[in-house]
């Protein structure tokens, strides 16, 4: 099993690291006590899981000291293990806790004869507790890192491949308004309209006679090629922002002919390189109304 252990100081970005691995197909568990690690791995392996990411931090208490021994035993059993230790400067941690208004995990541990620790005291207590783990894995200082940079570094260290982006191509009718879920909107109303050809009027952009009509018009091909070129040029930038979905909406007057045809053509092209979904809003409404 591929096992990634994420540990370090609270507030240093462990949740970000865990989330990016979950997006990349890892089974993820937060705040797992070390003593349960072997049992969980055995159970998940028996269930067919091959990739596991576990966050272990100060909330596990004294059990973090047993992590080194556990890692050695897991390695001897053939598991591929990578360990990330995330850290940050104290001033950065104080600022993050101030912005999120969350409690530090150790601030809830009140001595029987004392007062709860301040935030600074809790951070220093955690540093001392977690110091036994600082040198057993790859250490990343997240103090000045943008979250997207941290996501990329986590993928680099773990060797995880990015999850494929889902491209949703959606046709719609401008007369009903632009869909709220659209990330990119293109207007096909500038193209010749098959609606004005009587035999094509009842058909849709999915029907071959309409497709043949539109394929014969050079401006239709140019619009599709321009949208395709835009997506090829800018899709890598959306991927850098760790987008999981990108909705490309193409509209015409009624959402029946031109936009439907353009969506079908673009979907056919991009299915070769990405995960693609197709939605035709107006056609779906027509079917629902006729049912």
From TrEMBL:
ATP binds at residues 8-15. Residues 166-283 form the RapZ C-terminal domain. GO terms for molecular function: ATP binding; GTP binding. Residues 1-159 form the RapZ-like N-terminal domain. Pfam families: PapZ_C, RapZ-like_N. GTP binds at residues 57-60. Keywords: ATP-binding, GTP-binding, Nucleotide-binding. NCBIfam families: PRK05416.1. HAMAP family: RapZ_like (MF_00636). This is RNase adapter RapZ.
């Amino acid at each position: 099993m591929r096992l990634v252990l994420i540990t370090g100081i609270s507030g240093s970005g462990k949740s970000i690291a865990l989330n990016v691995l979950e997006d990349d197909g890892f089974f993820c568990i937060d705040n797992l006590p070390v003593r349960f690690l072997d049992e969980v791995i055995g159970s998940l392996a028996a269930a067919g899981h091959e990739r596991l990411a576990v966050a272990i931090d100060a909330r596990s208490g004294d059990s973090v000291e047993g992590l080194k021994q556990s890692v050695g035993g897991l390695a001897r059993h053939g598991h591929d293990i990578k360990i990330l230790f995330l850290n940050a400067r104290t001033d950065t941690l104080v600022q993050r806790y101030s912005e999120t208004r969350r409690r530090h995990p150790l601030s809830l541990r009140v001595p029987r004869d004392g007062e709860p620790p301040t935030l600074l005291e809790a951070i220093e207590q955690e540093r001392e507790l977690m110091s036994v783990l600082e040198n057993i894995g790859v250490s990343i200082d997240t103090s000045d890192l943008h979250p997207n940079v941290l996501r990329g570094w986590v993928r680099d260290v773990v060797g995880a491949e990015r999850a494929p982006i889902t491209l949703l191509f959606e046709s719609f009718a401008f007369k009903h308004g632009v869909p709220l879920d659209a990330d990119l909107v293109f207007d096909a109303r500038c193209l010749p309209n098959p609606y004005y050809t009587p035999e094509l009027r009842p058909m849709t952009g999915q029907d071959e006679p309409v497709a043949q009509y539109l394929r014969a018009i050079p401006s239709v091909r140019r619009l599709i090629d321009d949208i395709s070129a835009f997506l090829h040029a800018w899709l890598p930038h959306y991927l850098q922002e760790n987008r999981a979905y990108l909705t490309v909406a193409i509209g015409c007057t009624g959402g029946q002919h031109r936009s439907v045809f353009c969506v079908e053509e673009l979907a056919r092209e991009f299915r070769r390189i990405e995960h693609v979904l197709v939605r035709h809003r107006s056609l779906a409404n027509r079917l629902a109304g006729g049912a």
